[in-house]
Write a structure and sequence with these properties.
- It comes from Paraburkholderia phymatum.
- This is DUF5677 domain-containing protein.
- The protein is mainly α.
- It has one domain (about 15-110, about 165-260).
- The chain contains twelve helices and two strands, in the order ααααααααααββαα.
- The protein has helices at about 5, 15-25, 25-45, 55-75, 80-105, 105-135, 140-155, 165-170, 175-190, 195, 220-240, 250-260; strands spanning about 200-205, 210.
- It has a two-stranded antiparallel sheet.
- β1 and β2 (about 210) form a beta hairpin.
- α3 packs antiparallel against α12 (about 250-260), α4 (about 55-75) packs antiparallel against α11 and α6 (about 105-135) runs antiparallel to α7 (about 140-155).
- It is globular.
- The two termini are about 35 Å apart.
Length: about 260
């Protein structure tokens, strides 16, 4: 079995660490596991026939948010908390998109427009870089040029619009979630900041100067799981209410109670 010092977080030697943190944070993991079980049941109960574009996109968003939630749990128990935070941010954005699909039937088109903006900017960037590097084939240059022309034709001089997630969160009544989950996890996870880099900073062995570490951590693990559970509960609330999945209301209420108790455990 390869040790952590040999392959890092890919090591199979983290079993005792996982057992320890699951014991120390037992209420938090228990709540997360319960929410996940409910989400899996709801996932396979979502309507899959006669769907509008908004319904279909909503289903896709729920599945995406759930996968991010599950992988947050996996990284959290292994002590890779900075990257667990990145996944919480991803789940938050997707949960906000899901909620907007419910209240705005044009949301799928806005998501597609945001994607068109991305692929047009990427194509332009690659074409500009190729002027000096001359590394692209004629076929690839033609393909990228076609992408730029296609997007320009679709949106005209105005061009495609980028989604403002703060505005979308406000429209869906998720302003607090945006601040607590999306913005916080951006600064301490998704981006290269003093906070995300701080997970690898420590005093040196003598305690009299800066040093760095590479190891599992558990500081604020409870907050990561609390926030992740909050995001998943928002996604669950959206689809349960939207699709009238009343049989899940009782378990949903119990999951919310477990989530609230995480702050008092």
């Amino acid at each position: 079995m390869e040790k952590f010092n040999e392959v890092g977080f890919l090591s199979n030697d983290l079993g005792s660490w996982i057992d320890q943190v699951r014991n120390v944070f037992k209420p938090e993991f228990a709540a997360a596991v319960r929410i996940n079980r409910l989400a899996m049941e709801v996932l396979f109960s979502l309507p899959a026939e006669d769907m509008t574009e908004a319904h279909l996109t909503g289903n896709l968003c729920f599945a995406r948010a759930l996968q991010s939630f599950q992988t947050t749990i996996l990284l959290s128990e292994r002590g890779a908390l900075a990257d667990a935070r990145t996944l919480v941010r991803s789940a938050t954005e997707t949960a906000i998109a899901l909620a907007n699909c419910r209240i705005d039937p044009t949301m799928p088109a806005q998501i597609a427009e945001d994607a068109d903006l991305h692929r047009s900017k990427l194509a332009k960037s690659l074409l500009e870089a190729n002027k000096s590097k001359n590394s692209l084939t004629e076929e690839k240059i033609a393909e990228l040029g076609a992408t730029v022309s296609e997007v320009a034709k679709l949106y005209g001089a105005k061009g495609p619009t980028k989604i403002n997630w703060a505005q979308k969160a406000s429209a869906a009544g998720m302003g607090d979630l945006y601040d607590i989950a999306y913005r916080t996890m951006s600064g301490d996870g998704a981006h290269c900041t003093v906070w995300s880099l701080g997970h690898h900073h420590s005093l040196n062995a003598g305690g009299n100067g800066p040093g760095f570490v590479f190891r599992p951590e558990r500081e604020e693990l409870d907050n990561v799981l609390f926030t992740a559970c909050s995001v998943m509960l928002h996604a669950l609330a959206s689809v349960i209410d939207w699709f009238g999945l009343d049989p899940f209301a009782g378990e949903m209420s119990a999951c919310v109670s477990d989530w609230k108790s995480m702050r008092t455990s």
